[in-house]
Amino acid sequence: MLVLVRLLSPEDYGRVALGQTILGLMSMASVKTFLPHVLQYRDPARIDWQMQFTAATVMNIPVFGLTLIVAGLLSLTTHYAGAALPLAVLAVVLLIEIPSNIRQTMMQVEHDWARLQGLMLAGAIIGNGAGVLIALTGGGFWALLASALLFGVPAAFDLFFLLKWRPNWSWNWAGYKETLQFGLTRMGSAGLLSGRQTVEQATLTSSYDFGVLGVFTRGIGLANLAAGRIGSVFLASLYPVLTRAEPESHRSSRIGGLVLCLVAWISVPSAAFLALEAKQAVLLLYGPRWTGVTELLPLAAAQLTLGGLIATAYGLLLANNRTRTCLIIDMLAAVLGVLLAIVVIPIGPRLYLASLGIQNAFVLTIVVIMLVSTRGITLKDVFLTVAPPCSAAAVGIGGVLGVRTVLGNPKILVLHLAFEGILFALLYAAIIRICWPERLREILSPFPGAAGLRKVILLV
After folding, report:
1. Which of 86-90, 170-174, 185-189 has the lowest average pLDDT?
2. Is residue 327 pLDDT above 90, yes or no?
3. Rounded to an integer, what distance in angstroms lies between the CA atom of residue 38 and that of residue 6?
4. DSSP string, 254-279
5. Which of 53, 181, 231, 318 is most buried when burial is the number of CB atoms within 10 A of its CB?
6. Residue 332, CA distances (Å) to 189, 207, 309, 352 in order
7. Confidence band of 105 (pLDDT split at 50, 70, 90)
8. 61 falls in which pLDDT band (50, 70, 90)?
């Protein structure tokens, strides 16, 4: 990101962003929606991988063809023709995802985290490396497409050439019934989410242009990287473990409470500091060409942090087999999101982000109520999710502003961010350590080297 954002234009980012969003909408009927059902099995021995591969192929190939048709139709329009070629190229991802998703899910079921990490890291290095080389040679938006196309290649290679797994194209309707029911429900949820995002980006493009969409997505991207993705990353990593606990059990509730607290305790201060240092962060990470991101960043950080907490609580509901409840929540969020996009985006992106923050706060409240009512977490967990990070972040912000008033701002940008970042982190950690030591001890307990870490922070 640090390299590409200085080599590519906002228009490049806007064109690829709309293409990726439309691809996400098309992918609602793909293997990505149906395959996660195997993680719901409490007994992994029940999984028929051959049948899952057959189903993935039957789903993804027609979606691939349909995506090419949509790309062709986009090329005939005035506002969206710029996204046609990126979408056509991105359609190849649907073919790569057949073996790559099967292999990645196999490793999740087996809890083979080291191999999964290695393959995902290899995909990131290959894709991003190719993207930088393409950008340096003036390839424009092709640099952004490279990472999407190459990310899943190592997992597919591992399945076919290292594991030497081969499909036998077997099929069993009775055995696929549960996966089909799960997938159809999740397809509705995926379609609602992707549909809202498509309306959002299409409205931004038609109301403004691909350059404004590029600035908007870079603001969202930076906020997502700093705070918004924390919840989804934790859930993706822990979901195969969460589904092994019996729904509505004490163990499930305890794990859910700790996960929600951990996500909030990391994402809330991250978003608060990013909002506080928006101007400096954009100048350092993106450069002066992207100063338009600065005014969007605080609002983007707030709404994406709430979105990350929604994703965490939502994942806990889904792990407890509340698929219908999740679908209803998705319907509510999608309807509200589409209405906001159509009505508010033409007024201005800032007001739209503020409206999304209010919407996410409303949806989060509903999800948490449902989670408490189904014994996914307790009311005590809700309090410990909200009060500690908000209070500690407020103290950190106050301390930074106070020191900034007394000492002024360092002239060197890196020193400015480093000094205020260390001060904020120390104040935040001190408040958490002093006021909520018991919950901090619980959160740290599963981590490798937890005993040594507790000694460092005098939590014995």
Report:
1. 185-189
2. no
3. 41
4. HHHHHHHHHHHHHHHHHHHHHHHTHH
5. 231
6. 10, 25, 17, 18
7. very high
8. very high
Q: Is-contact 342 207, C-beta < 8 A? A: no
- For 112: left if phi > 0, alpha if psi spans -120 to 50, otherwise beta; the answer is beta
Mean pLDDT (the chain, rounded): 89
Q: Which residue has the tokens 């228009």?
A: 11
What pLDDT does 99 receive? 96
Q: Are 298 and 221 in contact (CB under 8 A)?
A: no
Locate the domains of the chain by residue range: 1-207, 213-447
Buried b (16+ CB within 10 A) or exposed e, 261-290: bbbbbbbbbbbbbbbbbbebbbbebbeeeb
Residues with Cβ within 8 Å of 455's Cβ and at least 6 positions away in sequence, in order, are none
pLDDT at 129: 94
Are 211 and 11 in contact by the 8 Å Cβ rule? The answer is: yes
The predicted structure's pLDDT at residue 455:
67
How many residues does the structure list for the chain?
Answer: 460
How far is it, in rounded angstroms, from Cα 161 to Cα 404?
57
Task: For the chain, count helices (H), then strands (E).
Answer: 21, 0
Q: What is the pLDDT of residue 228?
A: 80
d(CA 344, CA 199): 12
Q: Name residue, tokens 């990101």.
A: 1
